[in-house]
Design goal:
The complex is a heterodimer of chains A (126) and B (138).
Chain A: H1 5-31, H2 40-51, H3 54-76, H4 79-85, H5 88-99, H6 107-124
Chain B: H1 8-33, H2 43-54, H3 57-77, H4 82-89, H5 92-103, H6 110-128, H7 130-137
Helix pairs in contact in B: 1-3, 1-5, 4-6
Classes of the chains: A mainly alpha (126), B mainly alpha (138).
């Protein structure tokens, strides 16, 4: 592994972690409302109720932090490397869904996670 | 309610969202490249860097592109299931290295492509299993 790759991977892990926290807060806020069905008016009302929940603002804050770290990443790494490595958020989200949201994660999904980890390992050596 | 009929119209929207996502990251990369990146060791250097990037039109075009992607994506998800949409949308994992090579002059080695394929297969497995796990919850 080239020098600096470890630090870049650390930064990518940080943006992925922020993305995961962002998704968890958003999902938890959405879970507290009933899902809208059908017409645009109901969806608009749903979104209005959603943005009044503080957790949505926390989620928004984390997406801004994530964007800032992402810009640091892009300034020092190839886009083709950084975007591929950013797929580690799938890993974090699966783990967080399992242990924080207590969702069931299927065998096939864990298998997918293993493939993603192998892929990231391979590109980290290029 | 299971929504899974993938029509040509939705497929075109999905391809369009792939292209927009690729465009977003190309623009962000262009924005980041407008600044010197070598010595970001202090907080103030970091803030100067961010200030510079945020004053670049590339970044704002990128954010507009994010917004457009979000709107198109919402329209797609109102028509088909996430487990159908995500695997098709994950073609940006191919499009981005391809356009990085074409437009940014990055060299993407065969080894890196192999890694990308592994990631793509992984993303496929992760997203395809959505429905299976939803069904098992009920």
């Amino acid at each position: 592994m080239k020098e600096g790759v470890v630090f870049t991977l650390f930064l990518i892990a940080l943006t992925s972690a922020c993305d995961t926290i962002n998704q968890l807060f958003l999902k938890s806020a959405i879970n507290s409302l009933t899902a809208p069905s059908g017409n645009i008016l109901k969806i608009a009302k749903f979104i209005f109720k959603l943005i009044l929940i503080p957790r949505v603002w926390i989620s928004f804050l984390f997406s801004i932090i994530s964007l800032c770290i992402w810009l640091f990443v892009l300034s020092r790494a190839d886009l083709s490397f950084a975007f591929s490595a950013d797929s580690m958020h799938y890993v974090f989200i699966a783990v967080a869904s399992r242990f924080v949201l207590k969702e069931r994660v299927s065998f096939r999904r864990w298998l997918g996670i293993v493939f993603i980890i192998i892929g990231i390992t391979i590109i980290s050596f290029t | 309610m299971i929504k899974k009929r993938l029509t040509l119209k939705i497929l075109i929207l999905l391809i369009f969202s792939d292209i927009l996502e690729t465009l977003t990251h190309l623009l962000f990369k262009k924005g980041a490249l407008t600044q010197d990146h070598l010595d970001i060791n202090t907080v103030s250097a970091g803030l100067t860097f961010l200030g510079g990037v945020f004053s670049s039109p590339f970044l704002w075009l990128g954010l507009v592109s994010v917004l457009c992607t979000f709107i198109i994506w919402s329209a797609i998800l109102s028509k088909i299931d996430l487990s159908v949409a995500v695997p098709i949308a994950s073609f940006s994992y191919i499009l981005i290295p391809l356009s990085s090579a074409l437009f940014l002059g990055e060299s993407v080695s065969l080894f890196r492509w192999i890694g990308v394929i592994f990631i793509l297969v992984g993303v496929f497995f992760v997203s395809l299993s959505t429905k299976e796990s939803e069904v098992s919850l009920r």
